[in-house]
Write a structure and sequence with these properties.
Elements (H helix, E strand, L loop, with lengths): L1 E5 L16 H15 L5 E5 L8 H12 L5 E4 L6 H7 L13 E5 L2 E5 L14 H13 L5 E5 L9 H4 L6 H9 L4 E6 L6 E5 L2 E5 L6 E2 L10 E2 L4 E7 L4 E7 L1
Parallel strand pairs: 1-2, 2-3, 5-6, 6-7, 7-9
Antiparallel strand pairs: 1-12, 4-5, 8-9, 10-11, 12-13
Helix pairs in contact: 1-2, 2-3, 4-6
The structure holds fe (ii) ion.
Length: 250
């Protein structure tokens, strides 16, 4: 099974720029590249910060771009997103208003769980008791299947202080849930705007650069610095024995 992981598009109103860059143009080039090189992929998952300021025009642009994408796309919300504006551009997404944007998706590799870690009013992430209950029930429901988790915020510190201070609030509770089930094979997340991978509590994970601006590789400061690095997307291959994540700089 092959799929594409994209993250942190930070789209703005067409004609606007962000950190000196054109998020719309960069995202369109990502879709062009997927269409040209990976139309055989089963799907694409975008792990949040779809829009920089949660604006309607940004989501309308995203919907138009995804309509011309050769493969089905699944969306996760991040701390820059606005659920209400997001839902207006994507009315097919279940729920209303501030309902959590979460889903369990059947794929040929197993079940993809897309999680909502947004807490309006803060850039930090949250996985409250209601969401914890949903995750517990989904991991139980799909106990006999491999499960892959997609979320915006990493559920643990990544040793970049500027990002760890806006990490997930309920790390311990989240860890308790996923480690009490044996079917979570990998966690894909965004938020970091950096390529990184490893193993957490026996579960492999990966992230990648966003499609617009990137965050500096700074292990000391607790203030975010932005750096001029090119955008990425990842190509992921999954079978019963392995998960291979290639990060493609386009
Ligand atoms: Fe972001």
């Amino acid at each position: 099974m092959k799929f594409i992981h994209v993250t942190d598009s930070h789209l703005v109103a067409p004609g606007s720029r962000l950190h000196g860059l054109d998020p719309q143009a960069r995202f369109a080039r990502c879709i062009d590249s997927i269409n040209e090189l990976h139309a055989d992929a089963e799907c694409c998952v975008i792990t949040g910060d779809l829009a920089e300021r949660g604006g309607a025009e940004a989501y309308e642009f995203l919907a138009a771009e995804l309509a011309r994408c050769a493969i089905p796309t699944h969306l996760v919300v991040g701390n820059h997103d606005d659920r209400i504006a997001f839902r207006q551009a994507f009315p097919e997404i279940p729920g209303r208003g501030q309902d959590f944007v979460q889903a369990d998706l059947e794929t040929s590799a197993g079940v993809f769980l897309t999680l909502d870690t947004v807490q309006p009013g803060t850039h930090a992430g949250s996985y409250c008791s209601d969401r914890q209950e949903w995750l517990r029930s989904k991991l139980t429901e799909h106990a006999s299947r491999p499960v892959f988790i997609f979320m915006h915020h990493p559920p643990f510190d990544i040793q970049i202080p500027a990002l760890d201070v806006i990490g997930l609030a309920e790390k311990d509770e989240f860890a308790q849930i996923v480690t009490s089930h044996s079917n979570v094979r990998h966690i894909f997340f965004g938020h970091a705007h950096r390529p990184l991978s490893g193993v957490w509590k026996g579960i492999s994970f990966s992230s990648l650069r966003g499609t617009n601006h990137q965050i500096g590789l700074d292990f000391v400061s607790d203030t975010i610095t932005y750096v001029d690095e090119p955008p990425d997307y990842s190509i992921v291959f999954i079978d019963d024995e392995q998960i291979v994540v290639h990060t493609h700089t386009y």
